[in-house]
Write a structure and sequence with these properties.
Shape: globular
Number of helices: 4
CATH class of the largest domain: Mainly Beta
Largest sheet: 22 strands, antiparallel, barrel
CATH superfamily of the largest domain: TonB-dependent receptor, beta-barrel domain
Low-confidence stretches: 1-30
Number of strands: 28
Radius of gyration: 46 Å
CATH topology of the largest domain: Maltoporin, Chain A
Oligomer: single chain
CATH architecture of the largest domain: Beta Barrel
Length: 584
């Protein structure tokens, strides 16, 4: 705001006038007088003006700029330099390993053991393949202090056909199997018999089987996949079993969630020519049908599965039908990305028991199994944490508690006597075979595992598990260890050399020793099988992409332990072999 200078001058003069007048009057003592101002001071706002950014200079001397001229003297210079054309730098490509459609492996070792593998693949056209796989593992025996023949062999032949279309993939497998084991583990009393009596025992037990499996995977359809299996299994003691399994799986999304609907029909029908004590035939037949709808919820770090299983057991042999309901709930939440993920769940199910499954777990079972009904796993509740301690170290810890009805346990068959001092009338009557007993049990277990990628060429896995059993009718959880642990290592020493190791530790187990017969009441004695440690290792060398040789050593500490009662295992075993890959 700018004030008018004219009014300011008048106001200042008036003030000076009155001041001098007051002084003069006071000096001359003229008295007082009141002065009235008729018009008050009224300031005015003047016009504002802006100072120019570039003021005009009134310089009397104005110097003109001079023009500057530059000149360059060009002198030609002879040069032989020729610039090269630039070229883009290429990334060094690693040559991919050549993949072969066929390979053959052959090895021989101590105890007159043999290992053979063969695989070949034929490409029918772009979308169809046909393959053949043969596997054979055998030994002629020779375990120290074993009086009966202890050889074994296991042969498996597989034919597979694969068809891949845009939306449907078909895989069909035809599997043929032949196994031979011997009931060589006779008890101490039988070992005291005469050589003629022992030589009269034929411990050979052979298994035969054939199975056809078809799997269909469907893309971009609510019908996800389906698997169907039909299998026949029998042995040299006139036992037979037929099993058929159908498992369709349906999956479809609802908004951001996913609905899964799994069905399963599992049918088994079998018979044994006699039971353990007499010639009475044993038959069993069960059809298990179940449906498991579930909802999967994915929310950032949360994965939640909520479902239920409804199952029915049709016991056609005994004309009995039972219904079952099981929870299927599990959840996991990543609290610290991939480093800490707690998880929990409660699950259950109805599990089919079969003669073939028992022989794969214990090849020394007798063909006289009774009570072949499914196991009712009422629930298995678990809680655990998993994650990574670093980029090269992961872990998994889990505790669980479950209840199983009609759970199967292997138990050493008693030695059979006819009451007249004569032992046995079957080759598996001398404490050298095993039966299956069923009971209700509650199980607590704790499991821990660590996976370590020490380097890109050295990987290890260590796991251990502790068990505690509470049985109902039987005295012990027969042949179940209190703990077990294993260590696996794989080391790629160089481009040619590789090595690995496998270590097993199994705790003590309980079993029975007894005598039975038509006039004898069994008087069983509990025996304890010692814990055992089994160390195995292998070493190999690759001459090129096609040919490699390897060596294996099993039971390196030469421990003479018993995995099953009265059945010592082979001592230290060594095997040398070679693998050759090729194309037709």
């Amino acid at each position: 705001m700018i004030i008018n200078l004219k009014n300011l001058y008048l106001t200042t003069a008036a003030l000076l006038f009155f001041t001098f007048s007051s002084v003069a009057q006071d000096k001359d003592n003229l008295g007082t007088e009141v002065v009235n101002v008729v018009k008050p001071y009224t300031p005015e706002i003047g016009d504002a003006f802006k100072v120019k950014a570039t003021p005009k200079l009134g310089d009397s001397i104005n110097t003109a700029k001079k023009k500057v001229t530059y000149g360059i003297f060009s002198v030609p210079v002879a040069s032989t330099f020729t610039p090269a054309k630039g070229r883009a730098e290429e990334i060094e490509k690693i040559k991919p390993p050549k993949l072969y459609d066929n390979y053959a492996t052959l090895g021989f070792g101590t105890y007159e053991s043999a290992l053979a593998e063969f695989y070949t693949n034929f490409e029918i056209d772009r979308d169809r393949n046909f393959g053949i796989y043969l596997n054979h593992n055998s030994s002629q025996g020779g375990i120290d202090n074993v009086l009966l023949d202890d050889k074994f062999y296991d042969t498996n032949l597989n034919f597979n056909y694969t068809s891949r279309d845009r939306y449907v993939n078909w895989i069909t497998d035809l599997e043929l199997e032949h196994q031979l084991y011997n009931w060589y583990g006779i008890d101490e009393l039988t070992r005291l018999a005469t050589p003629q009596f022992i030589n009269g025992i034929d411990p050979t037990h052979s298994f035969y089987g054939a199975g056809l499996t078809t799997t269909v995977d469907v893309e971009d359809s609510f019908f996800n996949s389906a698997t169907a299996t039909v299998r026949y299994f029998g042995d040299s003691e006139s036992s037979s079993e037929i099993r058929a399994i159908i498992e369709p799986r349906i999956e479809f999304p609802i908004t951001d969630e996913k609905i899964n609907l799994n069905f399963k029909a599992d049918y088994v029908n079998g018979k044994f020519d006699r039971n353990y004590n007499n010639s009475q035939e044993i038959k069993y037949s069960h059809l298990l049908v179940s449906g498991s709808p579930s909802l999967q919820v994915l929310r950032d770090n949360l994965t939640l599965n909520m479902g239920i299983t409804v199952a029915v057991d049709l016991d056609t042999e005994n004309s009995n039908t039972d219904f079952y309901f099981y929870p299927q709930v599990s959840a996991s939440y990543r609290l610290a990305d991939e480093y800490f993920t707690p998880y929990a769940g409660v699950e259950g199910g109805l599990k089919q028991n079969s003669y073939r499954d028992f022989t794969q777990q214990n090849p020394f079972v007798s063909p006289t199994l009774q009570g072949m009904s499914p196991t009712d796993e009422k629930y298995n509740a678990y809680f655990g944490v998993k994650g990574k301690l670093s980029n090269s170290l992961s872990y998994n810890l889990r505790g669980s508690y479950g209840a199983q009805d009609n759970e199967a346990f292997f138990l050493n068959n008693p030695r059979y006597e006819d009451g007249n001092g004569n032992m046995g009338n079957q080759d598996y009557h001398y404490g050298n075979s095993f039966g299956v007993v069923f009971d209700d049990v509650k199980t607590f277990s704790f499991f821990g595992e660590i996976n370590a990628d020490v380097t890109s060429n050295f990987k290890m896995r260590l796991n251990a598990e502790y068990f505690s059993y509470n049985t109902d009718a039987i005295a012990e959880a027969w042949n179940r260890p209190e703990y077990k642990a294993s260590l696996y290592g794989d080391y790629q020493i160089s481009e040619q050399w590789y090595a690995g190791t496998t270590l097993f530790l199994v705790g003590e187990r309980k079993d029975q020793s007894a005598i039975t017969g038509p006039f004898i009441s069994p008087n069983a004695t509990t025996v304890t099988l010692d814990s055992y440690f089994d160390a195995n290792a292998h070493l190999g060398y690759r001459f090129n992409e096609q040919l490699s040789v390897f060596g294996r050593v099993n039971n390196m500490l030469d421990n003479s332990y018993e995995k099953w009662s009265n059945t010592p295992v082979q001592g230290i075993q060594a095997l040398l072999g070679a693998t050759y890959k090729f194309d037709w």
